[in-house]
Design brief:
The chain folds into two domains: 146 residues, Reverse transcriptase/Diguanylate cyclase domain (Alpha-Beta Plaits, 2-Layer Sandwich); 89 residues, Arc Repressor Mutant, subunit A, CATH 1.10.10. Helix 1 crosses helix 4, helix 2 crosses helix 3 and helix 4 crosses helix 5. The chain is 56% helix and 12% strand. The protein is globular. It is α+β, with helices and mostly antiparallel strands. Strands 1, 2, 3, 4, 5 and 6 form a six-stranded mixed sheet that branches.
Length: 263
């Protein structure tokens, strides 16, 4: 059987494993210098899209900003640069800080992307100690491969979200059915407003209905955001307060982002 290829890095599977082990060694050495060992670690990959600045320069800035802005437990960022992306091992005091880490990465990448065009990222699951870094590395690589294929406002795609996209990608027929809840918005909104309304709806769902946080996420004034929500309500005629409705809307948005509206 031939050597398995990694579609993100272009390296074969053996080299990917070696690269991950180097990351693990780096993390161990950093802790040995007096850094407080972290309870768990997350592998994060950052890549630049077409037309962006030189990847190594952008990635170095990303790593620097993460080191400067994360909580002390998150400053354990070990950076290694690949050909088209950077890889970091981020330490956390507990797995519960994972969401904060992803949110901070998103903020940093959004700020840098305003000047340097598109930057995207992917993250593996948090793993205990350093023993599972290789697994988190593989998950991040798989998620980055998926992130390069989809359109979404948030720069970072987690491995768990990537799995959901892989399931949707496996069945175009089911993906078309999943889009049914958002079809009234797709068909009823004008081309000029469709993209913005989809971003507003995604932000609303991502923040569990927190309008202030959602408006900030899409850099929109609160009143404007409320008006867009009202327009979405007119088109969808569904109860967004119902958890089952929000779940179906989320799946519909995922299918749409993945298939780029081609179904």
């Amino acid at each position: 059987m031939g050597t398995e290829r990694n579609t993100v890095s272009g390296y074969d599977d053996r080299v990917v494993s070696d690269f991950a082990r180097l990351l693990e060694d780096d993390a161990q050495r950093l802790m040995a210098t007096g850094f407080v060992p972290s309870a768990c670690h997350v592998v994060v990959m950052v890549a630049s899209g077409p037309g962006s600045v030189e990847p190594s320069a952008a990635m170095a800035r990303v790593a620097g900003r993460l080191r400067a802005r994360l909580t002390p437990a998150g400053r354990n960022v070990v950076l290694r640069e690949g050909r088209a992306r950077a890889v970091g091992v981020c330490g956390l005091d507990e797995a519960a800080g994972y969401g904060q880490l992803i949110a901070e990465i998103d903020r940093v990448l959004c700020e840098l992307s305003r000047r340097e065009r598109v930057l995207v990222a992917a993250a593996g699951r948090p793993v205990a100690g350093t023993a599972g870094i290789i697994d988190s590395y593989r998950q991040a690589a798989r998620a980055l491969d998926q992130r390069m294929r989809i359109r979404q406002r948030a720069p970072t795609l987690t491995f768990d979200d990537a799995v959901a996209y892989e399931v949707i990608r496996a069945s175009p027929a089911w993906a078309a059915e999943l889009m049914a809840p958002i079809r009234p918005l797709l068909d009823g909104a004008s081309p000029a407003e469709r993209s913005e309304l989809l971003d507003v709806l995604q932000a609303y769902l991502d923040t569990s209905g927190n309008v202030l946080a959602a408006a900030e996420l899409v850099t929109m004034g609160r009143r404007t955001f409320y008006r867009r929500l009202q327009r979405i309500g007119e088109l969808l005629e569904s109860d967004r307060a119902d958890g089952r409705v929000r779940f179906r809307l989320e799946l519909g948005l995922r299918a749409y982002r993945l298939w780029d509206g081609k179904l």
